[in-house]
Write a structure and sequence with these properties.
alpha+beta, 4-stranded antiparallel β-sheet, 2 helices, 38% strand
């Protein structure tokens, strides 16, 4: 076994690892969440939009909205708020030519019941946390 074959094996291994890393990074699901949420103060409805920026359909879409109340002593009470409509199973792939935008999804939550939103005594030190997790067939 010569030194050239050892160097060749190491270089080809590093090159293959680099290509695999780039391919795996390129095909991971890309979900963009809107920077701001829409709140209907009259009805106590919170709407959050997210967009599938991937070139493939998303499946097993899991999303959650949590209402977090900081008690001030380092302990945070967390309560999950269910969406108004049933959960999505999939989101279409990104296609800028499609005028109906099926890859953009708006999720609505009734926050008045859970948080007392809109009452005269708002809960201070509270915040919402929204998370999305999904995968695709690749």
């Amino acid at each position: 076994m010569s030194i050239e074959s050892i160097v060749s094996g190491i270089v080809s291994g590093l090159l293959a690892s680099g290509i695999l890393t780039i391919v795996l990074f390129a095909i991971k699901p890309k979900v963009k969440i809107a920077k701001e949420a829409c709140i209907d103060r009259d009805r106590g409805i919170l709407s959050i939009k997210f967009v599938n920026m991937s070139r493939v359909d998303l499946i097993d879409v899991n999303y959650s909205l949590f209402y977090c109340l900081d008690k001030g002593d380092g302990i945070v009470n967390v309560q999950e708020i269910p969406p108004i409509k049933p959960r999505l199973r999939s989101v279409d792939k990104y296609d800028k030519k499609n005028p109906e935008h099926p890859y953009a999804v708006c999720i609505t939550y009734d926050i008045a019941v859970t948080t007392g939103f809109g009452t005269d005594n708002p809960k201070h030190n509270s915040f919402f946390e929204f998370s999305v997790c999904s995968r695709h067939s690749l």
